[in-house]
Amino acid sequence: MRAVEGPTRRGGTPVRPDHGQVTGRYGDAVTSGVIRDAGLPEKSRVISVGRPPWWAVVVALVVGGLVTANLLAGGVLERVDLRVSETIDGWGLRDSTAYPVVWAITQLGGRAAILIVLAVLVSYLAWSRHTWVPLFRVLLALATLTVFVYALKHGTGRTAPGHPDELFFQVDGASFPSGHVANAVLMWGVARWQAVEYGLPLRVQRAFWVLSIAGPALTGLAMVSLNFHWVTDAVVGAAVGVVLLGVVHALDAVVLSRWVRARAGRQSA
To answer: Which residues of 146-171 are buried (b: 16+ CB within 10 A; e: fewer)?
Structure first.
């Protein structure tokens, strides 16, 4: 008895009953009219959103805690800070013609400079994507940054290099950790996150990727080279920024994004 053959296309290419339309050359399924898995798949992104993995947050917590404990105990890191500060003071950058340039680099971690960029980014996304989620994320990041960084600053009360009393727990001490470095890590990280998630042009994504990495590094180097901060201020500032970036991503996933989706569902119902 002759077996019944399945339907064929013109040219003799068989139609496979367990697939949709199939290309004759590769035999891969082809979507028709609708793109499956709409959106930007994670594996197709050239640049990630920059969420710190859990282990990076843990490492940042450990490093920040150990450095802080060593400083409060008057350990070796305090002596390293003093030696580096004395060396840098001999460079005289504050009184040189290079000062304006180095100071401008410190503003990569300045709150005003970053907020101007974020205001433009958030406004563009609100206009082009009809969403205020980026604004909520920026406000959440600002709130966590302000609370945690200033709690540490006033809690430790460390004075800056050149202060007559190079001590902790001073009323006018607010050097530790570096708010500029923490700000650069967190806020440029948030900017990169929005640029990638909302599919801005690749050159824009790459620009924010560079700023999220080079911004904190250059800010820390510039602040230390002008003797505005101790080296350990910058190190712990970076650690705090990584931890807070992880916290903001987690709060967004658990609270903010869920609330936005629930609100959108109620409006469409």
So the answer is: eebbeebbeebbbbbbeeeebebeee
Q: What distance in Å separates the CA atoms of residue 188 and residue 118, rounded to the nearest whole number?
A: 9
Cis peptide before 161 (omega within 30 of 0): no
CA–CA gap between residue 226 and residue 223 (Å, rounded):
5
Residue 172 carries which DSSP code? T
Residue-level pLDDT at 255: 83
> Residue 29: what are its φ and ψ, rounded to 5°?
-65, 140
178: DSSP letter: -
Dig out the tokens for 96 from the structure: 């040189």
pLDDT per residue over 159-192, tens digit each? 999 887 768 999 889 999 999 999 999 999 999 9
Is the CA virtual torsion 48, 51, 53, 57 positive or negative? positive
SS3 state at 89: helix
How is the chain split into domains, by residue range? 46-268
pTM, two decimal places:
0.81
Question: Residue 256 has what DSSP assignment?
Answer: I
